[in-house]
Amino acid sequence: MEKYSDFILRNRLLVIAAVLIFVGIAFSGAFKDGQWNIPFKSDYKTFFKDNNKQLNDFLSLQKIYSKSDNVAFIVAPKDGNVFTKETLTAIWELTNEAWQVTYNSRVDSITNFQYSFAEGDDLMIEDLVLEADMLDDELIARAKRVSLSEPILKKKLISENSDAAVVNVTIRLPAIDMTAEVPEVAASVRAIRDDFAKRYPDIQFMLSGMIMMNTSFPEASKADSSVKIPLMLLVVILAVGLLLRTITGTFATLLIILTSVLGTMGIWGWLGGYLTGPSAGSPTVILTLAVADCVHVLSTFYYNMRHGMDKNEAIKDSLRVNMQPVFLTSITTAIGFLTMNFSDAPPFAHLGNMVAIGVMLAFAFSVTIFPAMLSLLPIKVKQTAEHKVDMMDKLANFVIGNRKWLLPVSTVVIIGFASFVPSNQLNDDFVKYFDERVPFRNATDFMQEHLSGMTTLELSFDSNKSSGINDPKFLKFVADFSDWLREMEKTDNVNTITDTLKRLNRNMHGDDPAWYILPDQQELAAQYLLLYELSLPQGLDVNNQLNVDKSSTRVIATFQNLTSNEILELEQKVLRHFNEQNSEYGLSLASPSLMFAHIGSTNIVSMLKGSSLALILISILLGFALRSVKFGLISLIPNLTPAAVGFGVWGLFVGEVGLGLSVVMGVTLGIIVDDTVHFLSKYIRARREKGLSSEDAVRYSFASVGRALWITTMVLIAGFGVMATSSFKVNADMGLLTAVTILIALIIDFLFLPPLLMLLKSKKDKEAEREAKLKNPELARATRE
Question: Where exactly are the transmembrane stretches of this chain (predicted)?
Fold first, then answer.
C-alpha cells in the first residue's frame, strides 16, 4: 500500500490526466456522429423478457387478430352532454381527422359506428352520424338512443350518463424503431388534440390509451432527470460542504461523482445499451453512492491532518486505512445491484448493471484521481492538540453504558416491525405507475371515472374447425361466456361478435326486439356475417374479432382499473368457469394488464433467489476479508434486519408492494453492508492491532468511522429521497423504501451491533482483556492512537 500511495502522489498529474482521458474515451460511447446514442425505449413490452409466457401469449393473439395498441381521444363537453349538435360535430370531425394519425389502422367512435337497420327486405348499414351538417333533433335523438343501447358502445365509447365520449384510434406500429415510432404517434395525436381544443373551447380533449402510456415512460423519466440530477448535485454540495466543512473536498468529491456518472453512461453506450423508465434513474443512484467512498477517505484524511500529520502523509494513511473497507463496500454494493439481473423485468437488470459499473468506477476513481486531487489542491486544516469530545464519543459512551438493555430492546423492536412483513400484499396498477403530474394519468383517471378503465382481458375462443364461428352451438357458448363476464361487478364493457350477430338477426326480422337472439342455423349465421362484412367500409372490418379462416373469435372485456391481485384472481376465475363448461373448444387469455399482473408476483420470487445468493456471497466475502468466520456470521444480522424492518414499516403504513419494491431487498442489501463493513473493520483493527478491549474497540469504531457513516447515510437518504419525488411511481417507491431501509441500517449499526459485539466476545478475548488491563490500566480508557 505504501508503494501504491507513493506512486499516486508522486505522479499525481499523470494520474489525473490518465483518468480524465479514460473518462473522455468512455463517454464518447454515448455518442455517434455527434448525436446521443443511448436510445430511450418507450414500449411497455421492454418490461418483459423475450421468453415471458404472458408476453408471447399476447403477441400470438396480435398475430391472429389486429393489434390492440391504441390512442383514446377523450371528449368531455363542459355542459356535460355529448348529444348536442356542437359536441357530435366535434366527434364527427375528430373521427375523420383521426384517420390521419400516423400508423393508424382503425378509428372507432359513436359517430362512425356501423348502424344496421331494416328497410323493407333490405339490410342497411351506415355511419350512425353520416354528416355533421345533417344533424337535427331527430338524428341527435337517434344517435343517443342507439349509442346508449348498444353493448359494444356503452361504457366504451360513450359514458352511461352521456357526459363523455371516446374516439378510439387503433395503432399498428411497424416496430422497426420504437424509439421513434411511439413519439411520432404521440406528436401526431397531440397536434390534433391541441387543434380541437382551440376550435372547441367549450369541450375538453384528453389523451389516454397504450400508446400514450408508452410515451409517458420516457417523458416522465426525462422530466425527472432534468430536475433530479441538478437537485442531487446541490444536495451533495451542501451535505459534504456543511458536514465536512471543506470546499476543496467538496470540489474533489464532485469530480468523482461526475466522472463516475459520465464513465458509466459512456460504457453503457459502448455496450449497445438503452434506457427505460427504471434505468433512467441510474445517474441519480450512482451519483449518490459515489459520495460514500469519498466521504470515508476525506473523513480519515482530515482527522489525520487535525492531529498533526502533513497532507501527503494524511492521504497515505487514509488510503491505508480505507482501501480494504472501501473496496469491500464497493464490491458488496455492486453484488447487491447485480442481483437485479434475477429480475423478470429487464429494465431493473439494466439499472442494476449500470449502477454496478458506476460503483466500481467510483471506487477506482476514489483511490486514484481523488487522492491525487487532494494532494494537488490547497488545503488548510486547523490542528487540535487534544481530542475533543464530540457527538460520536457521547453516542459511544451511551451505547456502552446502556448495552445491557439496548440489545434486548432493539431485538424486540426489530422483531416487532419485522412481524408486519406479511401485511404487505402484491398490488400493482400499471396506470398508477405515474402520479398526477403526468397528463396520461389524469386522462386515464377521468376515463375510469366516466367511461371505463384500462384493465382489459382478451379471450380467444377457438372452435377448432374452419368457419366454426358460424356454428350455433359455438356462438351460444361464446355468447353465454360473454354474458357471464358482463355480470361481474367490475366489468365495464364486453366486445363480442355475438352481439353483432344478434343485432343482424333482429334487423333481418323487421327490427323486432323479440328476434335479438343468435341465428339458430349455421348457414344463416354465415350469410348474415358475409352480408355484414361486404357492407362495412374500409378500415372497419371484423379482423379485430375474427381470424382469417373464421375458426376463432376474440372477445375483449374491459374492467375498472384493477390491481394485480384482482387481475390474477380474475384470470383464475375465468379459467375455472371455462373448465367447468367441459366444452370441446379452446381458450387463450392475454392482455397487457395480465402481463403486468404476472410479472409482479414472479419478480418477487426471482429477486428473493437473487438476494439470497447475494447474501451468501457477501457473507463469504466478508468472512475472508475480515479473516473471521465469527464476524462473517455476525455481519448477517445487521445486513438482513434492515430490509426486514423496512418492509415491516412499509407493511404497517402502506401494505402494498409493487414491481418497483420487489427489487429493493437486493438494492439495499449491497448498500447497507457498507456501514457494517466499516464499523466491523475498525472494531477488528482496534482489537487486533491496538489490543483494545471490546468496549474501547467500540469507542474507537465510533470515533474513527461514526461521523463518516452518519454523513454517508444522510447523503444516501437525500439521494434516494430525491428519487422518491419522481413522477414515475416505480422509481419513487423504490427510492422511498430504500431511503427508509438505509436509515434503519444506520440505527441498527449504531444501537444494536455494538452491544452484540460486546456480548459475543470470546473467553479468550475476555482473558486477554483482563491481562492487558493488569499490565496497562490506561489501555481501557484509550480511544484513539
Answer: 227-244, 251-271, 283-305, 326-343, 355-377, 405-422, 604-626, 633-653, 659-680, 708-728, 734-760
Structure confidence by residue, pLDDT tens digits, 151-208: 999 999 999 999 999 999 999 988 888 788 899 999 999 999 999 999 999 999 999 9
As a whole number of Å, the CA-based R_g of the chain is 33
CATH 3.30.70 matches 450-590: yes
Which three three-digit cell numbers place residue 530? 358475409
562 has a pLDDT exceeding 60: yes
329-383 pLDDT, tens digit per residue, is: 899 889 988 988 998 999 999 999 999 999 999 999 999 999 999 999 888 777 7
Quick one: which of 643, 701, 777 has its CA closest to 399? 701
Asked whether 474 and 580 are in contact (CB, 8 A), the reply is: no
CA–CA separation, 490 vs 528, rounded Å? Answer: 32
Summarised one tens digit per residue, pLDDT across range 6-60 is: 999 999 999 999 999 999 999 999 888 788 888 888 788 888 999 999 999 999 9
478 within 8 A of 555, measured Cβ to Cβ: yes
pLDDT of residue 780: 47
DSSP 575-607: HHHHHHTT-S-EEEEE-HHHHHHHHHHHHHHHH
Q: What is the largest CA-CA distance in the chain?
A: 118
- Sequence-distant (6+) residues with CB within 8 A of 453 are 431, 447, 492, 558, 559, 560, 561, 562
What length is written for the chain?
Answer: 785
Q: Rounded to whole angstroms, how far apart are CA atoms 675 and 333?
A: 11
627 Rama class: left (phi>0) / alpha (psi -120 to 50) / beta:
left
The pairing of strands 165-171 and 203-208 is unpaired
Chain Cα centroid distance, residue 490: 27
What is the rounded CA–CA span in Å between residue 196 and residue 103? 20
Cell of 587: 381458450
Any idea what DSSP says for residue 546? B
Strand pairing category for 70-77 and 122-127: unpaired
Q: For 419-520, where are the alpha helices, taking DSSP H only? A: 439-450, 472-486, 497-507
pLDDT at 782: 43
Which residues sit opposite 124 in a β-bridge?
117
Q: How far apart are CA 606 and CA 236, in angstroms?
A: 34
> DSSP assignment of 427-456, as one string?
---GGGGB-TTSHHHHHHHHHHHHT--SEE
More confident residue, 64 or 232: 64
AA identity, residue 262: L
* Alpha carbon separation from 281 to 261, 515, 719 (Å, rounded): 11, 59, 11
User: Cβ distance 10 to 249 under 8 Å?
Assistant: no
What distance in Å separates the CA atoms of residue 145 and residue 139, rounded to the nearest whole number?
Answer: 10
User: What whole-number distance in Å separates Cα of residue 400 and Cα of residue 391?
Assistant: 14
Q: Where are the domains of the chain?
A: 2-38+216-382+395-426+597-781, 70-208, 450-590
pTM listed for this prediction: 0.85
Q: What is the DSSP letter of 705?
A: I
The rounded distance, in Å, linking the Cα atoms of 198 and 191 is 11
pLDDT tens-digit series, residues 391-443: 888 999 999 999 999 999 999 999 999 999 888 887 777 788 888 889 999 99
Residue 248 · residue 377 · CB < 8 Å: yes
